[in-house]
Task: inverse folding
C-alpha cells in the first residue's frame, strides 16, 4: 500500500478586520509579512507559504515597506510566497456578480504583476459557495477549488469531488474537512508528537479517497512557524508509514490529480451547515450597511461604468485608476466578515466610512463625465438637461430626476419639440443660496438669472432614450399656459395605472387587482415584526416570541397623490410592540413603531414601487414584509451569480438537524441578487429589492414571499441560540449597540405580477431596469459657480442626441459595459436569465469572445445556454 503523502501547508488566515479594526490588522500584517519574507529567504527548505490568497495583503504591506518589493517579487515569482487569485476573501452569496468578477480581476492582475497568481480557488472561511462559481473560476484560468464550509456528509463522504456549477462547468474540488486551523497547534514535545500525528492525520486519512491529505498549518493571524522544516523532518523520523512535505495548494493538487478516479459529483451552491456554520441569515445583518453596499454595487455596474463608456467613446479619458480605487474600497467591505456585518461596532463604522468614500468618488466621477459631455452640447435654453441611458437598448418610461427649476410656468420638451409629461414631487426654495454662488468668468456673456430657484425632485416621461447614449430635453418658459404639474392630493385609499388597481383593505393589507389578467391578490404588503434573540451571525427567534403584524396596527393616515405620470398611496401605521426581549417574553407592548409606506404606480409601468420608512425605537427584533401569492410551490426562483436559481422552500434536513447535531439549523432563509419569485407555468409574483437581499418562503402552503427589511441584535456573538446551539460565533463579550439600528430605517423594493411562465415574464430585465435609473445632468449658466465648481465655455462639438451603438444580445441581461483594461476596446458582458430558454448569438458577436479576465477566448459561442455568462470585446 502506498504511503500517505501529507501535504503540510503553512499559512495564515488574515481577516483584514473583524472584532478588531483594519488598522490593527495592517500594523500586525507588516510585522508578519516581514517575518515571512525573512524566514523564506533564510530557509530554502521552507518551500512555501500561503498568504491567504489575498493580493490586497501584498498591497497593504508595500504601502509601508516599498523597499521590499523586489524581495517579494522574487518569492512570488518562485512560487514560494503564494498570493492571489483574490483581492480580498469575498462573500459569494450576497455580493453582486460583478463585484466577485472584479475582485478576481484585480486580485489576479496584482499577483501576476508580482510574479504569480495561484490558480486555485482558495476559500478557507466564506459562509457558503455560489452555485455558478465554477464557471467564474474557469474564466480566470482556475480549475481547482479548495474550501472549508458548505458541504455536509449527507452529500459528501470524502474530501475530494467534482464540483459542477449551474452552467455545467466542472472543477476538481478538495474540502478542508476540519477547518483551515486544523493543524495549527503542533506539539513540539517528541513524546506527544507521534500520538498527535496519528490522531490528526488519521482523521484526514479516513476522509480522503487518495493517498494525499491536505494538512493546513495555520490559523487566524498566525505567526510564521519558523521551525516548521525541522518539525516536518521530525514527522518523517517518527512516522515511517507516511511521507510529510511542506507544500502549497498548487503542488497538492498536482499530486492529487495523479491519484483521483471516479469522483462523486456535487452540483450547485454549497450551503449546508452541518459541520461548519454558514450563518445564512447574515444576509440581513446590519441592514444599513447592506443597503449601502447594494446601492453602490448597482450604481457602479448599472449606471457609472456604462456612462463612462459613453464618455470615453466621445473622446474623454476613461478613469481606470479612480474606478480601481472605488472597487477596492468595495472589496475591502466584501470580505466575508465585513459584508456580513459580524464585526465590532468600531469596525462597522470603518465599513460605513468606506461606503461613504466609495459613494462620493463614484457619484462625483459620474457628475464630471456627464458634465464633460453636456457642456459640449449647444445650449438652446436656459434650462437644459442631458438624460443618459445606461442600458444597451432604447428606453422609454417615467424616470426620476433632480433639477433646479424656476418659479415660472414651463413645459418640458425634447429635441423635436414634443412635450414631455412631468410632475414635481417636492421642491425647496434655494434662490438666495444658488444665485449667490454664481460666478461670471466671462462678464461679456449674457446669462439668464431666474428670479426664484427651487431644487425639485421630478418624475418625467421620456421616449426612446438612445441605447448606451443620451438625449437632451429643455424647459420651455415661453408658453403662458401649462398643464397642472403639481399632483392632486386627496384622502382616497385607491390608486391605479394601466396594469394595476391597488386598494387599502380593511385589515391594513393591500388588495391588488391585475387588470390585464383580471386576477385579484389579497393580503399584500403585510408587515411582520418579531423578536430576534440572535447575534451578528445568525437570526434566531426567541424561545418565547411574540409575532405582531400590520393587520393589528392603527392607521394614522392615508393619502393619495395623482398626476399625469404617477400615482401614490401613502399609508402610515402605528404598531404597538415590545421594547426588548424581556417584554416580548412577557407579552408586553410598551413601545410604538411607526411604519410609513409610499406605494407608487408610474405611468405604463408593470412595477409597484414601495418606499418604507420605519421609526425604530425598540431592541432585538426583525421586520419583514410579506406578499401572499396563492401559488403553493416546492421551489422559489431567485437570481444568483449570472443566473436564476431554484431553491426548495423547505429543506427536509429541518426534520433531522437536531438529532444529527448540525452546527446550525438548515433554515430556508436565502440570498438573492435582486429578485425572488413564486410562479407556476402560467402566472407568478416577483419581489425586487434595492436593499436587503434576503428572503424566505413562508405560510402553511409555502405560498407567501417574505422579504427581510432589517433585523437588530445586542451582541457580536451569543451562545446557545435556538437556531444555532452551543458556542458563540464571534466574541460574546463584544456588545454592538449600533446594531440595534435605532432611528429611521428606509427600505425600497418593488412588486410585479405576471401571467406567463417565468421565462416569458423577463423578471431579470425588469429588475435590471429597476436598478438602472437614467442619470441626468443640468446645464444652466446660472448654476455656474462654487456650487458645482466653475467651468469655462467649451466649443459645442456634440450632437443633442447620441448612441454608442454597441451590439445588443436580445434576451440576455447585460452585466457590464466598460472599457477594457489593456486596450482601447469596449467590454460588454451578458448572461442568460432564463430557467429553460437558450439565446441565439448573432454572427456579429462571433470571434469577439473573451474571458472574464479580459483575455481573448478561442471558443466561439453560437448560443448562450442556461446559467452561462459571456464577455465580448468590441473595438472602439
Result:
Amino acid at each position: 500500500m502506498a504511503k500517505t503523502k501529507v501535504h503540510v501547508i503553512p499559512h495564515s488566515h488574515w481577516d483584514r478586520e473583524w472584532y478588531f479594526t483594519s488598522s490593527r490588522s495592517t500594523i500586525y500584517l507588516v510585522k508578519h509579512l516581514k517575518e515571512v519574507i525573512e524566514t523564506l529567504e533564510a530557509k530554502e527548505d521552507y518551500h512555501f507559504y500561503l498568504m491567504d490568497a489575498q493580493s490586497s495583503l501584498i498591497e497593504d504591506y508595500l504601502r509601508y515597506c516599498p523597499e521590499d518589493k523586489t524581495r517579494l517579487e522574487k518569492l512570488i515569482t518562485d512560487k514560494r510566497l503564494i498570493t492571489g487569485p483574490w483581492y480580498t476573501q469575498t462573500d459569494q452569496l450576497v455580493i453582486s456578480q460583478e463585484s466577485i468578477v472584479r475582485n478576481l480581476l484585480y486580485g489576479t492582475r496584482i499577483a501576476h504583476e508580482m510574479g504569480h497568481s495561484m490558480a486555485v480557488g482558495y476559500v478557507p472561511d466564506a459562509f457558503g459557495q455560489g452555485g455558478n462559481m465554477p464557471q467564474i473560476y474557469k474564466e480566470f484560468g482556475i480549475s481547482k477549488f479548495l474550501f472549508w464550509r458548505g458541504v455536509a456528509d449527507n452529500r459528501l463522504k470524502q474530501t475530494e469531488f467534482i464540483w459542477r456549477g449551474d452552467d455545467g462547468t466542472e472543477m476538481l474540488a478538495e474540502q478542508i474537512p476540519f477547518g483551515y486551523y486544523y493543524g495549527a497547534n503542533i506539539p513540539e514535545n517528541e513524546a506527544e508528537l507521534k500520538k498527535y500525528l496519528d490522531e490528526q492525520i488519521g482523521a484526514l486519512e479516513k476522509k480522503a479517497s487518495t493517498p494525499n491529505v491536505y494538512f493546513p498549518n495555520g490559523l487566524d493571524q498566525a505567526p510564521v512557524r519558523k521551525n516548521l522544516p525541522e518539525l516536518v523532518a521530525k514527522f518523517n523520523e517518527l512516522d515511517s508509514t507516511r511521507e510529510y512535505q511542506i507544500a502549497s495548494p498548487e503542488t497538492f493538487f498536482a499530486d492529487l490529480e495523479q491519484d483521483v478516479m471516479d469522483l462523486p459529483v456535487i452540483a450547485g451552491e454549497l450551503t449546508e451547515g452541518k459541520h461548519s456554520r454558514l450563518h445564512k441569515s447574515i444576509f440581513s445583518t446590519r441592514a444599513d450597511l447592506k443597503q449601502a453596499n447594494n446601492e453602490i454595487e448597482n450604481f457602479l455596474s448599472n449606471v457609472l461604468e456604462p456612462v463612462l463608456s459613453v464618455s470615453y467613446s466621445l473622446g474623454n479619458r476613461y478613469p481606470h485608476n479612480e474606478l480601481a480605487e472605488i472597487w477596492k474600497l468595495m472589496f475591502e467591505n466584501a470580505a466575508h466578515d465585513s459584508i456580513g456585518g459580524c464585526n465590532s461596532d468600531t469596525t462597522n463604522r470603518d465599513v460605513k466610512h468606506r461606503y461613504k468614500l466609495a459613494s462620493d468618488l463614484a457619484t462625483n466621477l459620474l457628475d464630471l463625465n456627464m458634465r464633460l459631455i453636456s457642456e459640449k452640447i449647444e445650449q438652446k435654453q436656459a434650462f437644459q438637461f442631458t438624460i443618459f441611458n445606461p442600458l444597451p437598448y432604447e428606453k422609454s418610461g417615467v424616470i426620476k430626476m433632480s433639477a433646479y427649476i424656476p418659479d415660472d410656468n414651463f413645459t418640458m420638451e425634447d429635441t423635436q419639440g414634443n412635450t414631455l409629461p412631468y410632475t414635481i414631487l417636492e421642491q425647496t426654495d434655494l434662490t438666495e443660496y444658488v444665485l449667490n454662488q454664481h460666478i461670471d468668468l466671462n462678464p461679456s456673456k449674457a446669462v439668464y438669472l431666474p428670479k426664484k430657484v427651487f431644487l425639485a425632485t421630478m418624475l418625467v416621461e421620456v421616449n426612446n432614450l438612445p441605447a448606451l447614449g443620451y438625449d437632451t430635453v429643455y424647459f420651455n418658459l415661453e408658453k403662458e399656459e401649462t398643464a397642472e404639474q403639481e399632483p392632486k392630493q386627496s384622502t382616497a385609499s385607491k390608486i391605479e395605472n394601466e396594469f394595476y388597481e391597488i386598494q387599502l383593505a380593511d385589515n391594513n393589507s393591500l388588495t391588488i387587482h391585475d387588470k390585464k389578467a383580471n386576477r385579484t391578490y389579497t393580503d399584500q404588503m403585510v408587515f411582520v415584526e418579531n423578536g430576534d434573540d440572535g447575534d451578528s451571525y445568525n437570526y434566531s427567534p426567541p424561545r418565547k416570541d411574540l409575532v405582531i403584524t400590520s393587520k393589528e396596527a392603527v392607521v394614522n393616515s392615508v393619502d393619495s397623490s395623482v398626476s399625469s405620470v404617477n400615482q401614490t398611496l401613502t399609508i402610515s401605521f402605528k404598531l404597538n410592540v415590545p421594547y426588548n426581549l424581556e417584554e416580548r417574553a412577557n407579552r408586553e407592548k410598551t413601545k410604538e413603531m411607526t411604519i410609513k409606506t409610499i406605494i407608487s404606480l408610474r405611468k405604463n409601468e408593470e412595477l409597484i414601487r414601495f418606499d418604507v420608512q420605519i421609526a425604530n425605537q425598540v431592541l432585538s427584533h426583525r421586520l419583514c414584509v410579506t406578499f401572499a401569492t396563492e401559488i403553493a410551490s416546492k421551489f422559489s426562483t431567485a437570481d444568483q451569480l449570472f443566473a436564476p436559481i431554484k431553491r426548495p422552500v423547505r429543506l427536509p434536513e429541518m426534520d433531522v438537524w437536531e438529532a444529527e447535531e448540525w452546527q446550525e439549523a438548515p433554515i430556508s432563509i436565502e440570498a438573492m441578487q435582486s429578485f425572488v419569485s413564486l410562479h407556476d407555468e402560467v402566472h407568478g409574483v416577483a419581489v425586487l429589492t434595492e436593499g436587503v437581499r434576503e428572503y424566505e418562503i413562508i405560510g402553511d402552503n409555502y405560498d407567501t414571499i417574505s422579504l427581510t427589511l432589517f433585523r437588530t441584535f445586542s451582541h457580536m456573538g451569543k451562545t446557545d441560540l435556538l437556531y444555532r446551539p452551543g458556542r458563540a460565533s464571534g466574541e460574546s463579550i463584544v456588545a454592538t449597540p449600533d446594531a440595534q439600528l435605532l432611528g429611521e430605517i428606509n427600505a425600497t423594493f418593488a412588486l410585479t405580477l405576471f401571467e406567463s411562465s417565468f421565462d416569458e415574464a423577463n423578471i431579470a430585465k425588469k429588475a435590471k431596469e429597476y436598478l438602472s435609473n437614467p442619470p441626468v445632468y443640468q446645464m444652466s449658466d446660472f448654476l455656474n459657480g462654487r456650487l458645482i465648481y466653475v467651468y469655462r465655455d467649451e466649443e459645442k462639438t456634440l450632437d443633442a442626441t447620441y448612441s454608442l451603438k454597441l451590439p445588443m444580445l436580445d434576451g440576455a441581461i447585460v452585466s457590464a459595459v466598460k472599457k477594457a483594461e489593456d486596450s482601447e476596446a469596449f467590454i460588454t458582458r451578458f448572461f442568460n436569465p432564463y430557467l429553460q430558454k437558450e439565446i441565439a448569438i448573432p454572427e456579429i458577436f462571433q470571434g469577439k469572445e473573451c474571458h472574464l479576465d479580459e483575455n481573448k477566448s478561442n471558443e466561439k459561442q453560437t448560443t448562450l445556454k442556461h446559467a452561462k455568462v459571456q464577455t465580448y470585446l468590441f473595438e472602439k
